């Protein structure tokens, strides 16, 4: 169903076949796994030879090469007149979103960035649902949001070195990214696009609108990176993040709904902290462990089964 003023899109989402919640959880888990690694991988690239501009170019440029053909042929074929439907999605979860997250990563740390943006996103999504649809969150969802916030505050507090200070601009950038991500989940659900179509359009429009600026302004720093670094970053940014992770998250939204799927992504900071144990040999403190448990339990409450959404 299209919103007022939107182009009616062909029904390619197979709504007759209602996807099961377990499949939605599987897609959400896959996206969480890749998102978690992305914060570490991107932070690594930004600490070496790449800039945030390069990360954006790799992510969406390669994604467009992989996915644009799906808009022209096959079951996900989309009329050209409907392609502008993807512009708002590209603004919310395309190059601007990566710019804010990348800025936050550069000015803070992987742990802080992975804690703030994904954990605040479901809260913003819940607020936007409340404002736009008058659909007040249930008490169990509010309890989940409160636990996520409490766990987030503890986790961020534990992650800041005693002698250090949080970078205000970095924190604000991550908060803006979280708000954009939360609104994106609602816009995606109402767009009428299939998960694959939405993913392809995000990559296409991000590339069309961003690459001319990237090359025209001489922002590229790719020539300074080694072949190994470029191969690794292009594989993760261009394929795993732009194609696999975004498609998985879009399918999770289509299956579970914006509230539940966005809440599950709040597990990203938990996964990042746990990932640091075997890889970086960093063991969280007792307070950090308590915050992890709080976030996990809050996610469980927020992702509890909800009544079918009305449009």
From TrEMBL:
Keywords, in A-Z order: Cell membrane, Membrane, Transmembrane, Transmembrane helix
InterPro entries: AA-Vitamin_Transporters, EamA_dom, EmrE-like
Subcellular location: Cell membrane
Domain of life: Bacteria
Record-annotated membrane-spanning stretches: 25-46, 86-105, 111-131, 143-162, 168-186, 198-215, 235-253, 260-280, 286-304
Keyword check for Zinc: no
Protein's membrane topology: Multi-pass membrane protein
Record's GO cellular component terms: plasma membrane
The UniProt record lists the keyword Coiled coil: no
UniProt xrefs under SUPFAM superfamilies: Multidrug resistance efflux transporter EmrE
Every EamA domain range: 23-156, 169-302
Name of the molecule in the record: EamA domain-containing protein
């Amino acid at each position: 169903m299209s919103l007022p003023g939107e182009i009616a899109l062909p029904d390619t989402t197979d709504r007759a076949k209602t996807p099961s919640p377990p499949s939605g959880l599987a897609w959400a888990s896959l996206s969480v796994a890749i998102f978690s690694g992305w914060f570490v991988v991107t932070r690594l690239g930004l600490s070496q030879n790449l800039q945030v501009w390069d990360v954006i170019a790799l992510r969406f440029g390669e994604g467009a090469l992989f996915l644009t053909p799906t808009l022209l042929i096959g079951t996900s074929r989309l009329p050209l007149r409907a392609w502008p439907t993807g512009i708002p999605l590209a603004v919310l979860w395309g190059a601007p979103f990566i710019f804010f997250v990348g800025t936050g990563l550069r000015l803070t740390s992987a742990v802080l960035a992975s804690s703030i943006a994904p954990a605040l996103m479901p809260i913003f999504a819940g607020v936007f649902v409340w404002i736009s649809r008058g659909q007040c969150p249930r008490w169990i969802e509010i309890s989940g949001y409160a636990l996520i916030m409490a766990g987030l505050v503890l986790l961020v507090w534990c992650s800041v070195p005693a002698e250090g200070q949080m970078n205000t601009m970095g924190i604000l950038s991550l908060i803006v990214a979280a708000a954009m991500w939360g609104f994106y989940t609602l816009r995606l659900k109402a767009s009428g696009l299939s998960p694959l179509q939405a993913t392809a359009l995000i990559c296409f429009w991000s590339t069309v609108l961003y690459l001319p600026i990237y090359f025209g302004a001489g922002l590229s720093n790719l020539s300074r990176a080694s072949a190994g670094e470029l191969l690794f970053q292009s594989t993760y940014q261009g394929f795993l993040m732009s194609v696999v992770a975004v498609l998985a998250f879009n399918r999770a939204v289509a299956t579970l709904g914006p509230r539940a799927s966005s809440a599950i992504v709040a597990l990203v900071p938990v996964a990042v902290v746990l990932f640091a144990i075997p890889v970086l040999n960093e063991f969280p403190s007792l307070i950090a462990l308590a915050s992890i448990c709080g976030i996990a339990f809050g996610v469980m409450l927020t992702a509890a089964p909800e009544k079918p959404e009305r449009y």
